[in-house]
Amino acid sequence: HYIEHPRPIEPPAEAAPPPPQPLKLTKKEQKKLRTQRRLAKEKDKQEMIRQGLLEPPKAKVKMSNLMKVLGSEATQDPTKLEKEIRTAAAEREQAHTDRNAARKLTPAEKREKKER
């Protein structure tokens, strides 16, 4: 504890230049970039599913595609399957409305947005 260590000092250097301003994109270019980003994201998701890192989403069975998706199971007990399909569809719709409600602006936020 008798040795005194000086604090390390940053060597003098020039301040870093500010980053260049991004180019303003046209509407068409913005749309193209958004499409490319979404396609790349979807491809990544499909690749993860193929590798087994993500579980594939369960089939959205509807009344119209009941026979195509379930096949022989649908002929054994159609009433039970119809009930399951209706409940699954109701759950999907409820999840959709819940997501929308969560995203909805509060009256104060609406007022603030209108003022902006």
Automatic annotation (TrEMBL):
<dbReference type="InterPro" id="IPR013881">
    <property type="entry name" value="Pre-mRNA_splic_Prp3_dom"/>
</dbReference>
<dbReference type="Pfam" id="PF08572">
    <property type="entry name" value="PRP3"/>
</dbReference>
<feature type="region of interest" description="Disordered">
    <location>
        <begin position="86"/>
        <end position="116"/>
    </location>
</feature>
<feature type="domain" description="Pre-mRNA-splicing factor 3">
    <location>
        <begin position="1"/>
        <end position="106"/>
    </location>
</feature>
<protein>
    <submittedName>
        <fullName>U4/U6 small nuclear ribonucleoprotein Prp3-like</fullName>
    </submittedName>
</protein>
<dbReference type="InterPro" id="IPR027104">
    <property type="entry name" value="Prp3"/>
</dbReference>
<feature type="region of interest" description="Disordered">
    <location>
        <begin position="1"/>
        <end position="32"/>
    </location>
</feature>
<feature type="compositionally biased region" description="Pro residues">
    <location>
        <begin position="9"/>
        <end position="22"/>
    </location>
</feature>
